[in-house]
């Protein structure tokens, strides 16, 4: 018992922790370094953010910020959303040389209740998306809430996939919205499902500027 | 059979679809409107983005964009990350009047392998975070990768929680990083778990500018 107590003096314990920590981190570094070594291919990636949780669109707009930081040009098309002027729209309109921003207008589909008009709007928005998807100068294309337009079959999924496939090799695309169709997930490189663990809305807290819009 | 065929002329079918669509959307609108009616409380929210999937930090930076669009001031502290200059850092440093940006330096913890130095850096970063968390002029505080610092016990969780609780009433905070501690999830308003469905890295595609950094 006495020996154990002696070994547990603060200095020795701190040394132990540091040694263990160092060993653990060295192992981790070796694994991470090897993974990085293996992942060397540079190519445009297709990302899909889906699920019911918060963070799908905001994550795409965080990528816009990264892209702008690296001097890339960005194209944004917002499907479905658009009646309300959002923070991201207000902000990005400050950089017309770097970001082309197109909001489809009309707001959420359950506000309009007019399928035909929604389909026309969606078709126009996809025309804009195609202009971005054929322009190699644009490094990142955000197709915000595209999954909703696909879910309601406002757009033809196979045509959308064909246009995504035909884009410039180094162009990144981020698609957001609940209920991403399986065929889109299939052709995507990175797919994240945002899952709700809890949401302030359920506690009676309003959607607020800077958080939800 | 003939009657059925007659009823399935394109015009009638389109009308049916539109009627069904309208009814479904009207129901949805009623539910959404009622929820919005109930969720009226305005207050600063604490958001936690956790899980192994992509989108935790980028979603926080998307919120930064929203906040800036609404004229709010923003404070960012990056824990753990920082050796590499990221796109978000380069971009946000263009707006020194609107964004205060502090990167902890030193890179990921498995690069340094020095627990004591990491703890000192984390403590300094938390001092900066506390300056933001006591400043009512700052509408949004991003504590990027704080969960990693908590996981390695570089910071005292109960102190962190106390400081978060004591912040100005209308201030929003976004905390990111894998493995958010249960006590933090407990006090958060909105928690999203980013789940990996697939990741380009596993297919040998490198982490790239505008996507991962």
Automatic annotation (TrEMBL), chains A, B:
Entry similarity comment: Belongs to the Cob(I)alamin adenosyltransferase family.
NCBIfam families per the UniProt record, alphabetical: cobA, PRK05986.1
Stated role: Required for both de novo synthesis of the corrin ring for the assimilation of exogenous corrinoids. Participates in the adenosylation of a variety of incomplete and complete corrinoids.
Localization terms from the record: Cytoplasm
Main location: cytoplasm
Organism: Undibacterium squillarum
Protein name: Corrinoid adenosyltransferase
Alphabetically ordered keywords of this record: ATP-binding, Cobalamin biosynthesis, Cytoplasm, Nucleotide-binding, Porphyrin biosynthesis, Transferase
Gene assigned in the entry: cobO
